[in-house]
Queue: 3 jobs
Job 1
Amino acid sequence: VTDRIRTVIFGLGPIGAGIATLAASRPDIDLIGGVDSAPDKAGRSLGDILGVETGNARVLDDASAALGELRPQVVLHATGSYLPDVQDQLIACARAGANVVSTCEELSYPWQRHPDLAKKLDAEARSNGVTLLGTGVNPGFVMDTLAVALSAACQRVERVTLTRVVDVSQRRLQLQRKVGMGLSLDDFRASVGAGRFGHVGLAESCWMLARGLGWTLDSLDETIELVAGEGGLAAGMRQTATGTANGRTVITATVQMSAAAERPRDEIAIDGAPPVRMVLEGGIQGDSATAAIVVNAVPRVLAHEPGLVTMLDLPVVASRGA
Amino acid sequence: VTDRIRTVIFGLGPIGAGIATLAASRPDIDLIGGVDSAPDKAGRSLGDILGVETGNARVLDDASAALGELRPQVVLHATGSYLPDVQDQLIACARAGANVVSTCEELSYPWQRHPDLAKKLDAEARSNGVTLLGTGVNPGFVMDTLAVALSAACQRVERVTLTRVVDVSQRRLQLQRKVGMGLSLDDFRASVGAGRFGHVGLAESCWMLARGLGWTLDSLDETIELVAGEGGLAAGMRQTATGTANGRTVITATVQMSAAAERPRDEIAIDGAPPVRMVLEGGIQGDSATAAIVVNAVPRVLAHEPGLVTMLDLPVVASRGA
C-alpha cells in the first residue's frame, strides 16, 4: 500500500506515545519515524518504544535531519504546551513540507496571546504549502469547538458557561503534579505565583469560543484556587476564566482537576434562545481522547488549504476507526 | 448598507415564517422577498405576514418570476419534507443563481434514498455556481452532525445509540397530527400503512452518521409504534431505525414524539474507546432551533464551493446572534 499518509511523531512523552500508538493502528496512516531527543528514546526503534509494530521506523534526535530524510506528509507533534517553546519545531516541520497536528495548547488559538507568532507561523505554513493545527480535548474540543457547535441551535446566545471536572486520582503523576495535588497551601500559592502552573489553554478555549460566536471580549480574567484534600493538602485545583463583553460576563469557564472530584463531567450551558444544556457524564477522558482527536484530525488537515488554522476552520472532525 | 446578504424566504408555513422572522432580525441579512402560493399570503407585504419590519419586501406566488426579479444570493427554503416534491423549486433557485439552505428533510442526506436526484441537484448547483444544503434540528444536527462531532474524541467507535424524546403536547397541531396524537390503534395502524406518517429524516440521519464515521451500512430498518395515551388513544409515536454493518447493529436511533413524554431530551451514546455519553436535558426545541440552524448556516454555505453539500462538509455552524 503506497497511498497511506506518511506520518512522523514528534515527541514521545506519554501523550505523544499515545498518539503514535493510535496512529500505528490506523490503516490509512504509515508511521515512518519519530523525533525525540531523550537519551532513552533517540536512536531506538519506534516500535520497541511503543510496543507495537511500526516496521523499521526509528526515533531520531535531530528534527531537521529526520524530517529532511523522511519527508513526512504529516507530523503529529506533542512536545510542549507553550508556543514560544515549540515554535522552532513547528517551523522546521513546515519548512520540511509537513502538515502539523499539534497538542501544543497555546497553538489551538494563538491569535490573542501570541499574535505576532501566529502571523509568523501562518506565513511559514502558507509559503511552504502546509496546514498547522493545534488541538486536543481541552483546548481544542470540549470547551470550545463543541460549545460553538451547540450554538448552531440558538437564535441568540447571551452567555456560555463551561464546566469541566476531572478526577485526577487515577491519572498520570505528571498531571497530578501539574494541578498541585499533595501541595500545602503555601506551596500551592507559591506555585501559582511562579506561573506555568495549572491547566494551559483555558484562555485559548475562551478566545476560540468568542471568535466562533463572533464576540469581541473586553477582558478575560483567570483565577486558580486550591481544592482542599486530606490533611489540609491540596487535592488539586480549580481554575476559572471569566470573559466579558460590553461590560457583561459572557463566558465563564471552570476546570476543576483534583483527586476524588465529585461527579466528573463536561458541561456546557448556553443561555440564549433557545437555551442549550449539555452534559457529558463522566467527562471526556483527556489523554485517550486527545490522541483520538489529533489522529482523527489528520484527513481534515490534509484536505485544508495551507495556513495556520483552528478547529473552527475545519469541517467536523470524525472518528475514522474501523 | 449594501453588503448585506440578499435573501428570499421560500415557503411561509410555520417553519418558514419562523426562519424569515429570525432572518429579518439579523444585521447581515437583507430579507428582500418571499415566495408562497397560498392565497392568504401571495401578493401581500412580507412584513405584514411576519409582523416584523422588512421594508418593501413582498410575497409572490410565482417562484421563477420572483427569483428572476429579486436575484437573491440566498434562498431559505421551507416548503416540504420530500425531495421529489420540492426538486423543481430547488432547481429554480439554482438556475436563478441562488444558494439554498432548505429544511427539506430528505435533502439533508439525499445520496442514499434519491441517488439520481442527488446527482442531478449536485450538477445543477455546480453548473450554476451555487451551494445547496438541507439542514434543521433533526435531520441535520442533533442525531447526525452532533454525533459525528462527538466521535472526534473516540479512538474507536463500535456503536451509536441516538435517542430523542419530544413532548408534543404544547407544540403545533400540525406536528401533533403528524405523530398520530389522538388516533385509535386502528387509525394509527392505517396511517402507518398508508405511508408519509411519522418523522421524516430518521433514515437520513442514520445514513449521514454512517457516512461521517466511514461506515457502510448493510441494512437500515425502520419501525413505528404507537405510544399509548388516555382512553386507549395514541399519545404519539415512537419511531426506531436500526442500522447494521458486517452483521452487527451499529446504529440505533429512536425518536419518540408524544404528549406527556417522560424526560424530554436528546441523548447520544457512543460505545467505543473512550465511550461518550451526551445528554441535552429537555432536548433541543425543534421549531425555534431549526430556524436558528438554517439562518446560522448561511455564511458557511456562502463560503463553500458550489455543489450539493451536507452539514458534514461545512466548518462548524455557529450562532452569529448579537
Job 2
Amino acid sequence: MDLVESLGEGESSGGRPPELIRFNAQHGYVAGVDIGGTRLRMMLADLNGKAVAQWSTQFTEKQKAPKAVCTIIHEGLREMCRQAETTVRKILHLTAGAPGITDVDHGVVRSAPNLVGWDDVPLRAMLERETGIGTIAENDTNLAAVGEHWQGSARDIDNFVFIAMGTGVGAGIFLHGRLYHGAEWSAGEIGYLGVTGTLRESPQMRQTGQLERIIGGPGIEEQWSRRLKRDRRQSDRALSKLCASQIFDLAQEGDPLAIHVLTDTAQILADAIGTISLLFNPRLIVLGGGVGAHECLCRATEKFVAKNEFAHPRLRSSSLGTQAQLFGAISLSLAAVNGTLIS
Amino acid sequence: MDLVESLGEGESSGGRPPELIRFNAQHGYVAGVDIGGTRLRMMLADLNGKAVAQWSTQFTEKQKAPKAVCTIIHEGLREMCRQAETTVRKILHLTAGAPGITDVDHGVVRSAPNLVGWDDVPLRAMLERETGIGTIAENDTNLAAVGEHWQGSARDIDNFVFIAMGTGVGAGIFLHGRLYHGAEWSAGEIGYLGVTGTLRESPQMRQTGQLERIIGGPGIEEQWSRRLKRDRRQSDRALSKLCASQIFDLAQEGDPLAIHVLTDTAQILADAIGTISLLFNPRLIVLGGGVGAHECLCRATEKFVAKNEFAHPRLRSSSLGTQAQLFGAISLSLAAVNGTLIS
C-alpha cells in the first residue's frame, strides 16, 4: 500500500478520443482500477486522457475481501489526488476491472476464481457508496482489449481478439467496433477450450480450464520442471525456479530445453487461435498478459498459425503490457463522462 | 427446371418487418434465391414479406457453372412472375445465397467447394447484368440465420448461432442484433473445428474439415455402415442405403444401432456447441439443415450440452427448415428496398 510508482514511458498517453476537445482538461479527472489476483493498480487521468498519477499496491489475503478492496481503492484515489495536487471530488468517473465474469449492466462480479469470496459481488454499488463516484465494473481482460484499441496494438482495428496469458488464460472480444460480452457476460472464456490430444472434459465454472492449465504460467513452469528432470538438470536450483517469461527469455538465448517449452506452448496457442479464427475470423490477435506479451512467443506462434488457411489474423504482442487494463478503464470512464458510452 | 413447387405451409409468412407499412404491397416484389449444391430454390414475396410464389429446380453438373446458374435464376424469376400474375420489371430487389464464403461488400463468391469452378465469382454483378435487378450476394447459412431471426426459431433474439448440418457443416453468427461476417467473410466456418480424440489437422480451404467429415451427412452414413458391418446386418440392402435423417428416424423408433450413431453425433455436436459457447456465449443455438433440423438430434444433444457449465444456450431445431435461406433472402431484400440494410 506504500508503493507509489513513478510515471513510466507508456503512461503519458498523448492521444485522446477525437470527440474530447476541452480547453481546460484539469476541470475534472477520471480514474481506472485494475484489481489483479495479487496486485491492485490505479491510474488517474485528465479529461484529455493524459495520465497524471499512478498508484499500486500488493494485496494480503485479508485485503482481497470485496469490502477491503473498496477501502484500498478509495485510499488509492486520495493518494493519486495528492500526487496530482487535486481532490477526490474532482474525479468525475471511475472504471474498475475485476479478474472474473462481470455483469456490466448490473455492476456485479459473478465469479472471480482467483479472489476468494468474490461470488456475485455488487462491485459497482459498493464502490459508488465508498467513493461517491459514478462507476463502471468490467472484466479485466475486456478492459485490456479496450485499452489496446484506444492506445495500443489494436488502434483503429474494429475486429480483433485480445488474448491474456498470465496465471489465467482468457480473451477480450472486440467486434463491430465494440466489446462483445455474450448473453451471460462470459464470451471469451478460452481458458476452458479443449486441447488436441487430451481427453474430453466438461468445463466447470469453479475449476481452471484445460487450455489454461497447460499454457497458463503455472502450466508452462510445470512443463519446464518435467523437462529439466528428464534432462537431469533439476539439481540447478536457479533454473528450476524460473517463471514462464524467464523460461521464454532462456529460449531466446538459445537454450534447447527452453526452446522445446516455448515451441509446445506456441503450438497449443496456435491451435486455440485457429479455433478462434474459424469462429470469429478476426483481423488481428493481440497477445497480452505477463506470459503472453513475450515477443518470442508471438514469433513462435506465428509460424504455426501460418499453416492454417482459415487463420490469417495478424499477430501482435500487446504494446501496453500491464497498463492495458488501466488504459481501457480510463477510456471507458472518458466515454461515460462524455455521455458516449461505447462498450 | 420443370418442377414448380406448390405453396406449402411455412410459406405465407404473415409477419413483416415493423418498418414496412404499405397500403399497396403489390406495388412491387422482392425475390430470394438459394443456390444449393444440388438444387436451386426461389421465392417471390410482396412488400409485406408475404410469399406469393415459389420455384425450384434440380441442377445438372453443366448447369452449375456460374453463367448457367444466372440464366436459370432469370428463368425462375419469370416463372414465379407468371404464377403471381406480375412481371419481372416489378421485382425491386433480389438476394442470392451461395454455399460458400461470400464477400458481401463486393458481391463476390470467394470459394464454394460444392460447386465446381466457383472461385471468385462476381455473382452480384453477373445477376444484375442478367436480370437488371439490384442484388445482394450472401452466404447461404448466413441467410438462414437471418431467416430464423425474422420468421423462425430465433425471433427477437439478437445473439444466437445458427448451425447448418447437411452435406456440409457451417454456422451463421448473429451478434449485436445483426450478422457477423468476420474480417475476410469467413466467420462461422465450424466445419473445420477439431474433434476430440482425433489428430491435429491444419484446415485447408479446398478440403472438407474434420468436424464436417465426421458429423456431416456422409460422415454419419459412414458410421452407420461401419456399425451395420460389425453387427452383420450389412446384407440388408435397404438398411445400408439409409441417409442420415432416415438413420435418426430409426433411432427415434428405438433401433439400438441407430441410437449409437445418433448419440455419437450428438456428443460431437455438443463439443462443438461447447466451443462456440465459450467464445460467443450465445443466448440460443438453432440447429438447421437437412440433417441438423431433426428433432431427435436436438434432444440428444441437449443432454450433453447440459454437462457444460459454460454452455447454457437454449437449443432449438429450425422451424423454417429448407425455407430458412429463402426467408433470410426476402428479409434482406425488403430491408434493401426500404433503405435500411441491417446486415
Job 3
Amino acid sequence: MKVAVVGLGSMGAGMAVSLLRAGLSVIGYDVSPERRAQFALAGGAVADSVADAASNADVVVSVVLNAAQTESVLFGGSDANLSDAGVARVMAPDGVFVSCATVPPRFATDMAARLEATGRHYIDAPMSGGAGRAAEGKLTVMASGSAAAFERAGPALNAVAETVYRLGDQAGVGSAFKLVNQLLAGVHIAAASEAIALAARLGLDLPKVYEVISQSAGSSWMFQNRIPHVLAGDYAPLSAVEIFTKDLGIVGDVARGEQFPTPMASAALQLFIMTAAAGMARDDDSSVARLFAQIAGIDLPQKSDA
Amino acid sequence: MKVAVVGLGSMGAGMAVSLLRAGLSVIGYDVSPERRAQFALAGGAVADSVADAASNADVVVSVVLNAAQTESVLFGGSDANLSDAGVARVMAPDGVFVSCATVPPRFATDMAARLEATGRHYIDAPMSGGAGRAAEGKLTVMASGSAAAFERAGPALNAVAETVYRLGDQAGVGSAFKLVNQLLAGVHIAAASEAIALAARLGLDLPKVYEVISQSAGSSWMFQNRIPHVLAGDYAPLSAVEIFTKDLGIVGDVARGEQFPTPMASAALQLFIMTAAAGMARDDDSSVARLFAQIAGIDLPQKSDA
C-alpha cells in the first residue's frame, strides 16, 4: 500500500513519520525544499511534485492549510506552487483521498462529489490534536465518508490517529464536527487569555490561578493547555494565531450562510484578528493574552532565558 | 462549637446538612419559613431571625445571594427581610464570619475591615460546585483571610468542602479568584450553548457531538456538565440563568472599574440577559441554548415525560 502525504508542515510531517513507523510505504511532498529534506532525513521518500508523490497512490493524505489549497491538490489550480497538481488524475483508480484541512462542510461535500465521479474515494477527515500528537500518531480524526473508503484507508488512519470517529457516510459531516470544535476551542483560548490577563490586573498569583481554575468549573481543555505558555512567557507557535483567524472565519462564514448567529465566536474572532493585527499572527495563539496585556498596560510573565 | 448558617437555599441547605453530618452544632436561618421547616426536618435547629441564629455563634456561614444581602446580614440594613440582622453585634466576640456569596473583591475587603474592627474575623470564601456537591460536603472554596480565622473556622470549612484553597491573608483575594472562575464559567456556558445549537442547525447527531467534543480540544468543564441538560431537554434549574446575569455583571463592573476590557465576558453576559429577557431567568443556565433555538427556529431535544 502506497501512501502519499501532501504538506509536510508541523502536522503533516508528524503524520508522515507516524505512517512510516507503521510500516507503510510513504512518499511525501511539500512546496518547501527544506521540509522535503527534513522528511528525507527522517527516512521518508520524497517527490518533487504533488503529481509524482500521488502517482498510483492508494491513499493520498492532504495536510494543507485550507480549502483553496485542498482544491488545488485535488484538481490543480491557480496556486503557482500547486499548478502541477491534480492528484485526482494520477492516484490509483480506486484510491482514497484523505482531506485533513479545516474546511466548510459544503466544500467537503463538493470535493467528494467531484472526486467520486472519477471512481475514487474521499474521506472528510479534519484532525485535532496538534503537532506533538501528530508526531506520536495520536491525533483525533473527525471523519466521514463511505464504508469502502474507510476500509481502504484504515491502515493509514490508524497509523496517524489514536481515535478515529466515524461520523457519517457522507463528506461534510466530519468538517461540521470540526467546525463546532473550533468554535469552542477558539472561544476558550480567547476567554482563557482574557481571564488570565484580568487576573494579572487584579494582582493575583498567576500560577495559583492556573492551579485553582484548572480544578474548578471554569476549566477548559484550552485553559489547561495554553495558560502554561503564558506563565512561561513563551509564545513560540505550537498553534498560531492565524489558524484561528482562519478557522473562526470559517465558523462565521458557515453560520452566516445558515442565518445562524454566533456572538461568542464573533467576539473571539475579533480578538484573534486584533492579535494578528498587532503583529502576532504567527505567534502562539495564547498571544491573545499578550494583546490584553499590551492594551491594558499590565505585565505578564517574561520568558526566562536559561 | 456553634455554627450558624444564614441562607438555606439550594447551596446553604446542603452546606448546613454537611455541617450537621460532621457533628457540629448547627442552627439555620432563612427568610423563607418553608426552607426553615425543611432544615428542621433534616434534623437541624432553626432560629426565627438572623440575630437569634447568630447569637454567640463561633462561626457564621453566610450563603445569601449577593453583596447587598451579605452587608445586611453583617451589619443590618434596609432589606426588610433582614432588618433585624447585624450578626456582627451578636456573634461570639472572637467569632468568624464566612462569606460565601460571589461579590466584588473590594466589597469583601470593606466588609472584612469593618468586621475586624470589632475583633471578629472574616473569611472571604466564595464557593464553587453547585447544590449537589454542597449536599455532599464536597464544594471547592476559594478562600482568603487571616491564619487565626482559618484555624477557628477550619472544622466548618472542612465539613462543607472537598478542597479549601487558601489564597491569601486578606479578604478580597478569594473573591477575585471566584470572579476569574465565573468569567470563564459564564463564557463557557454561552459558548457551549451556541455550539450545540449550531450543531443542531447543521443537522448533526447531538449526542455524538457531545461524545466527540467532550474528548476533544473544544471541551470544557461546563460543556461536559451542561450539555446533558440540553440533550435531555431538561431545563429545571440546577444553576439558574439569573446567577450568571449577576456574576458576569460583577465581572463587568469590576473590570470596568479597573479600566480592563472583557469582550468575551460581555458577549456572554448579553446572551444571559437575552435569555432572562425571553422569560428564562429562573431556568437552568443551559437555557442559553434554547434562546439560540428560539431565535433561529431550530428544534432541540424535548423532555420526554416518562
